[in-house]
Structures are given as structure tokens and as C-alpha cells.
Amino acid sequence: MKAYKVLAGLALVAGSFAAQAAPTVLDTGILQMGVADNGGLGALGVGLSGPTGDAITPGCLCEGWGAAAGGASGYVYGLGGTGVVSALTTTTTASGAGLSAQSVVMLSNGLQVTHKYSYAAGGSLFKIEVVLTNTTAGSLSDVRYARTLDWDVTPGYFGSNYTTVYGGTPAGPGGKVLHTSTNPFAVPDPMVFRAQEANTNVVNSGGDKGGYFVFGFGALNAGESTSFNTFIGASRTVGGLKSALGSVGVEAYSYTTGNSVADGDFAPAYGYGFAGLGLPPSLVPEPGSLALLGIAAIGAGLIGRRRRA
User: Fold this and answer.
1) To 10 degrees, the CA torsion angle through 261, 262, 266, 271?
2) CB of 182 closer than 8 Å to CB of 196
3) What is the pLDDT of residue 305?
4) What is the pLDDT of residue 288?
5) Greatest alpha-carbon span in the chain
6) What is the pLDDT of residue 11?
7) pLDDT tens for residues 179-204?
8) pLDDT for res 208
9) Distance separating the N- and C-terminal Cα atoms of the chain
10) CA distance 140 to 33
């Protein structure tokens, strides 16, 4: 028995330092997110679980990303892939403020797409650094990335959810944002735009909707990379989510709420935002909300310690 305990302890120590290659569930202490090898969400039965449960898995798994170069697209949707040559997720630390994981996907169009996952905004958000790399010997033109996400937020899904989309400027898409829509129900082919509320900033648009964004990065020379950041998370209030997104400097964003009411707006709120798109930050949090995020970070740290204990 004693020998078994020693060996088990050694195994746990080794596991805490060695990266694990497999789909994973990441945990900030406030949110949980399931990441597949190909960077899609919904792995191991978990999409994004927040204050009222999972808001990705209740309906169709209409979530994914895509990348294009020279008009040729590859994409991941509902955990399946098209134009995917290889995909692998490795996790160094799955929980707490030090969480670290990455998904590396090779596409047939010559792009390598890396999603690097970490902790942000006191655990109210996951940060995902997206890196697009040209692995070919020549230049790749018109490099694009798309993200689509259908939220099904409790209470109220499907028909009584409310979606907001901000494309980066008061007039709609700007900077590297080429296109926005509230229609998440199609494969995220960056060469395809969608008609529903296209390129329009919308606030609390009712129905079963979500966010679709397409970004453009121009040409990439051989071996060259470009990157930007995605932040995804949830809060019991719209104000709480917007404060978290504002604290990390997002420039464009979308969120969907349930049909409860809190602080004069619909609630709860699940959403995502983007930074590094050549635009100014769109949400500036109030000092009081920043203090609350700091308290959340302390709380998440205590939860992590208790779990490890």
C-alpha cells in the first residue's frame, strides 16, 4: 500500500510538469471550457460553462473557426474539420491563474493555426492568442480568419436570447474586421459573408442568434506569422462581462444574454471579444469594476488552492 502511494505521488508530480496531448477541459475557477485537438469548443461534453451552466452545448454545436489564404479555406465546425491536415492540443496546466494549453492545426492551404489558451480578467475570461503562420515556400495572399459561435443561454434559449454585436467602430466593421453577422449557423468559411444583420452594430437583437466575425490580414510571406487575441467568457450581468472585456482592451465583440433582468439589462451574459485588430479599445471599464475583477482573481486563486488540497 505504501509503495502504491509513493508511485501514485510520483505520477502526480510528473503529470503536473509534463504537457498532456489530448482534448482538455480548462478551468479558471469561475469558468470551464472544453477544447478539442482542432481548437473547437465542446470537447469532453463541455463548451463554455459559466454562471447558469453551459451556453454552447444545449443546442447544436454551432461553433468553430476557419482560416483562408489565396481564396482556399480550411475550417473547424461542430468539432469536425475540413481542410485539416493535422491537429493536436497540448495542456501544460489545466486550471487556475497559471493555466496553459495550445492547439496547433495544419491546414491544406499552407497555414498553421495555433490557439494559445490562458487565464484573464480574474478568471472571468479565457484568453486565446491566435497565431497564423505561412508554412509554404512562397507568399500567401488575402489571409483571413473567421470565428462563429451560437450561444444558447439559460434562461430563455432558444427564442428568448438577446444578442449584441459591435464591429469595432460606431459605423460597424473597421480595422482588420472585414465582416460581422448575428448568424452563427454555417461553417466558418472566411471567404463567405452572411446576410443576417450584416456589418451592422446591433444591441439586444432577439432570437436564436450568435456572432460571426471575419478578419483580414493581407499577405504573409514565407515563414511569416501574424497574431491577435480572442477573449471568451461570461458573467451574471452584462455590465460584468463588458467590464471584463474592457479590462483586456477588446476592440470588437459580441455577447448573448438570457431573458432574466439584472442591473437594468438582460442577464446573464456570455460572449467574446477581440484585440490586436488595429482599432482603439471599445470598452473602458470603470475603476470600481476593475476592483471587482481583482477580488474575483483572489477568489479564483483560493478555489484553486482548495481543489489542489
Assistant:
1) -140
2) yes
3) 45
4) 53
5) 68
6) 36
7) 999 999 999 999 999 999 999 999 99
8) 96
9) 21
10) 32
Cα-based distances in Å from 61 to 80, 151, 215, 230: 10, 9, 22, 19
Q: Does residue 113 contact residue 39 with C-beta atoms inside 8 Å?
A: yes
Residue 134 CB-density burial (10 A; 0-12 exposed, 13-18 middle, 19+ buried): buried
CA–centroid distance for 171 within its chain = 24
> How confident is the model at residue 290, as a pLDDT?
46
pLDDT at 287: 57
Interaxial angle between packed helices 287-308 and 238-247, expressed in degrees from 0 to 180 and rounded to the nearest 10: 90
Are 33 and 25 contacting, i.e. CB atoms less than 8 angstroms apart?
yes
What burial letters (b/e) apply to 36-57, b meaning 16+ CB within 10 Å?
bbbbbbbbeebbbbbbbebbbb
Question: Can you read off the three cell numbers belonging to residue 30?
Answer: 469561475
C-alpha cell at 113: 493555426
- Among candidates 221, 308, 304, 305, which has minimal Cα distance to 30? 304
What is the C-alpha separation between 133 and 227, in angstroms, rounded?
A: 9
Measured distance CA(162)–CA(139) in Å, rounded = 42
Closest to 146 (Cα-Cα) out of 230, 224, 46, 86: 230
- Cα separation, 218 vs 69, in Å, equals 9
Tell me if the pTM is above 0.85: yes
Would you state the pLDDT for residue 59?
87
CA distance 94 to 24: 8
Residues counted in the chain: 309
- Round to whole Å and give the CA distance between 182 and 195: 9
Write phi, then psi, for 188 (nearest 5 degrees).
-80, 65
Q: According to the model, what pLDDT value does residue 284 have?
A: 80
Residues of the chain with pLDDT under 50: 1-17, 289-293, 295-309
Determine the residue type at 287: P
Which residues lie across from 164 on neighbouring strands? Answer: 255
User: What is the Cα–Cα distance from 271 to 64, expressed in whole angstroms?
Assistant: 14
By the 8 A CB rule, do 9 and 3 touch? Answer: no
